[in-house]
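User: We ran a pulldown and think these components assemble together. Before we commit to crystallization trials, I'd like a predicted model of the whole complex to look at. Sequences follow.
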Amino acid sequence: MKLLASMLLVLGATVGTVTPANAVAAAPDIPVANVQAHLAELQRIATANGGNRAHGRPGYRASLDFVKSKLDAAGYQTRIHQFTASGATGYNLIAEWPYGDANNVVMAGGHLDSVSRGPGINDNGSGSAGLLETALTVSRQNLRPTNRLRFGWWGAEELGLLGSTAYVNSLTAAQRGVIKAYVNFDMIGSPNPAYFVYSASGQPSGSQAIEDLLERGFAAKGVPTELTSVGGRSDHAAFARAGIPVGGTFSGAEVRKTAAQAQKWGGTSGVAFDRCYHQACDTTSNINATSLDRHSDVIAYALWSLIGA
Ligand code: DPN
Ligand code: CA
Ligand code: ZN
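Assistant: Here's a predicted model for the assembly, 309 residues in total across the polymer chains.
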């Protein structure tokens, strides 16, 4: 009750009027089988395009076209934001659910590009697929939220957060001003998974309200969490620099799981959360379905609350 009250206070000031108690009751269970089907499609795209989905390569554009066609069919207003990076054209996909207050926009996003060494199924097909299935669930439920929901699938993250940075730089001050929150999902299906929530104090513009909300999402599923300082390692950084409150979740990359973490979460201590991080073996075999499911459900939990579903 104290938590809910404090969240109302903070979010009430920043994200319009939200009613977390109702939203929590209504938060959907994202079907992990659908998220896995999206990952299978991203894997197929990589395999058909030289084994990757990297910036400037055909597998990237095919990935974007796949996600866009799903969103278009579901009633989203989609737009491709083009930029130039490393001598190649880059693309962000922006998708807005065209209901709710356009002056109170909640954004969720993750990068859609892979490194050139592999298909990037955990990094970051996983976040991309979890976001996609959450977006499709919004459409299936025909939500009419209080606030406006906008998704971003970013290009050229692996080259230095280039797509998300180009997007934020393309906005006017007024357009930046209506974005009240940005939540980021970069790697959510790690094979030896962690359940990390971005620490509000671990980066500029970190939001305590979003950190609390994401923690409650995991707690509602009985999953213990830890805070992690992601700093500027993913696409929330551009939003943070613009003063937009940010947060996110993360199932871990190259760092090894400790004994205490293995006790808490299962898995193998002394082994990286993702042994295939940035490698050719980051395929559909490199996904823990339980992690993918839990993090995807938490995406929905947080968004339903933030938009006042
Ligand atoms: N930014 C990620 C990558 O694409 O390599 C890794 C990462 C994600 C690191 C989230 C920290 C937090
Ligand atoms: Ca689920
Ligand atoms: Zn990544």
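The pocket of calcium ion (ligand 2) is lined by residues 29-30, 32, 293, 296-297 (CB under 6 Å). That may be worth checking against your pulldown data before setting up trials.

User: Thanks, that helps.
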